[in-house]
Amino acid sequence: MNRATRRRQQKLMNARSAKGGPATNSHAQSMAQAAEQYRSGNAAGAASACQAILAEAPDHAHANHLLGIILLQQQQLEKAIEHLTRATTAMPEDAGMLTHLGTAHSYAGNLDAAAGSFKAALKINPEFVDAYNNLAALSMRRNDPASAIEFYQRALAVNERVAAVHANLANAFLSIAKVDDAITHYRRALSIRPRFAEAEYGLAQALRDNGDLAEAIDHYKIALEQNRTHASAMTSLAIVSDSLEDDMHARIRNTYKLAAPDSDERKLLSFALGRHEEKLVNFERAAELFTEGNAIHRATLDYSPEKSAEQITRISAVFDEDFFRSRMGSGVSTEAPIFIVGMPRSGTTLVEQILASHPEVSGGGELSQFPATVFPMMQELHSHGFPDAATLLQPNHVTKIARDYLEGLDETITGTPRFTDKLPGNFLMVGLIRLVFPNARIVHCTRDARDTCLSMFKIFFPSGGHHFSYDLGELIDYHRNYQALMQHWKSLFGDSIIEANYETIVTDPETSIRTLLDRCGLEFDQRCIDFHATKRVVRTASAVQVRKPIYTSSIGAWKNYAPYLPGLEEAS
Fold this sequence. Notes:
The protein is mainly alpha-helical. The protein has two domains: 3-237, Alpha Horseshoe (Serine Threonine Protein Phosphatase 5, Tetratricopeptide repeat); 305-552, Rossmann fold. The protein has helices at 3-14, 22-25, 28-39, 43-56, 61-73, 77-90, 95-107, 111-124, 129-141, 145-158, 163-175, 179-192, 197-209, 213-226, 231-240, 246-258, 264-279, 283-298, 305-318, 321-325, 348-356, 369-381, 395-407, 430-436, 449-457, 472-493, 502-507, 509-519, 526-529; strands at residues 337-342, 361-363, 418-421, 441-446, 497-501. It has a five-stranded parallel sheet with strand order 2-3-1-4-5, with helices on both faces. The longest helix has 22 residues, at 472-493. 46% of the residues are buried.
């Protein structure tokens, strides 16, 4: 819980009046002393005072409230919920108490209960900014940024000078690639609160996505001036900068040493320091650091390599020749989508940047619409969902998937004749893509397996996913399973799957790009060769690389690490 949240809680505590009647007032002096101890930083003394009051008056609203807040800060969530529930039962018209109860439920993962408490608080006080802010945060956790944006905007309609709400709204805009809106609100947050490290960091991220790398670096550095141990800023700066000053290297190294083992901070700093050691050509030390960072994150994941392999095998079994032979003529004939698939870090962002530089193509980025459209229908058709449910698809189902997918796209994407959908993991869905959009282009990005696996192993993916990539052995096995599935698709669809090989593109760009455009049904355009000059939002780990002209230095990078990462050389 950050200091701003604590200050708001203390302000609410200070504003409490004796609404609870004589039973509450009989302990007014003791309660005032408890509140004063809390304000002065003596949480233990405040808790003891509250417990003494509750021994005589178990339903004392203010004592339960203050003790609940203290327990919440100590992450004793069940006890916090118990006391905050008693407080709100005694004083059901207190919006602040309801908001704290909602916060406790939110931390405990009880999202519906949390939302109920926040909404109850707003019924009492429709101008309670904290409740709107918390409802918006819940919406973000539920992957519903549209609702989050609405709640943040309602909070700002009440009070437009709350820096944290502007920053949170900016985060929500950034999550849906509305980068200009995000930048506007990050700057607004900083105009209200100039020393706001998280807003500086967010602004740097947004500027990076927009291609303004020099300004992004400036704001990463400002964030680090304001918070010298900001691990995320250190990690991003290590990725964005071609080189780091000695003092920054020393700061990252010292912060890394001070970070608790197995902590999130240590994880991020392992990746950041590994990047810098790589730039100093200390590959053995870099390998140690990347291995440490990956191991910390892998320990937090519920990932089964066996289940992953079983799924890929099952996909091949379901989508066989008979499946497509019996469904000839299904789907929607549009040629608008260009699906770009492959392993992450295999050149998918580069290929999209090339295609999106063409005047007839909009770059959609890593769209989630296709799986988000398919999976709910699969679950309705069969309890096992995808891929088993695919055998139950009827022509009307296929048409509905196509319609829902296209209607769910932002008009900025569909405003050109063609658009890209660059979700690498859609390689699992190639069979369904071909069924739903038989005339859509599917571009498969390939790269040397050793460089692909190494590049993934050096990256922490903050947006989640790619759970297979945090153990090198599991990553290599997953890559082999991916290759087997792509061979299956090629056996079914042949050369209609367009191959775009990373090494070929960077060593012979003009020939490769001309061929790619021709296979996608596009006329040659010089802007595709000069893709690095194209101004567009890129929100992937390759956002920095595609702002530069073609370079070949990443080819064969695995050789630097092969002596220190056992198994890498055998990846194929």
